[in-house]
Write a structure and sequence with these properties.
166 residues, Aspartate Aminotransferase, domain 1, 61% helix, single chain, alpha+beta, 4 strands
Length: 166
């Protein structure tokens, strides 16, 4: 059996992903860019990870998983519709709590409450074992980035926010 280099694997996966029009392989493209950048840095004498074969193994699993998810159309559609439904439900629940929710087509919503800072909301949620992302940049400091999870997770998040706001 011929042993193929990791770059062969990356090229093959990239071809497979580019053949599948309509998908958005951002994360896979990011991994490819990281790999290319790592190779370029190592050529210039930059420090590279101590165990590059470990990194290649992780990247291989990333590609295998990406390709498998693309090939399973039914799972993709089911997951996509669940995320879309949960995102809409979360936006409605947050709006009822007085949040301003920006329009989203992603797997998260960006929301802020006019009566509380982003830091205060994050601290309150953390105290209730709910993790959300908060950014310190001035334009978005009052916003929370809330990832779309299961219905139970989103219910826990909205209940925690409701408790804090009462």
């Amino acid at each position: 059996m011929t042993r193929r280099s990791p770059s062969w694997f990356f090229r093959s996966a990239a071809r497979k992903l580019s053949d599948d029009v309509g998908r958005r392989p951002w994360r896979i493209a990011h991994v490819l860019a990281f790999e290319r950048d790592s190779n370029e840095r190592s050529k210039r004498g930059a420090i590279v990870p101590a165990f590059p074969e470990e990194r290649h193994c992780r990247l291989r699993f990333t590609f295998v998983g990406a390709i498998a998810s693309i090939e399973d159309e039914a799972y993709f559609q089911e997951t996509r519709s669940t995320v879309m439904r949960n995102r809409a439900d979360l936006a409605v629940a947050l709006t009822r709590l007085g949040f301003e929710v920006l329009p989203s087509s992603a797997n998260f919503v960006f929301a802020r409450h006019p009566g509380h800072s982003g830091e205060a909301l994050v601290a309150a949620l953390r105290d209730r074992a709910v993790l959300v992302r908060h950014f310190a940049a001035p334009r978005i400091a009052d916003f929370l980035r809330i990832t779309i999870g299961s219905e139970a997770e989103l219910r826990q998040s909205t209940e925690a926010l409701s408790d804090f706001l009462d």
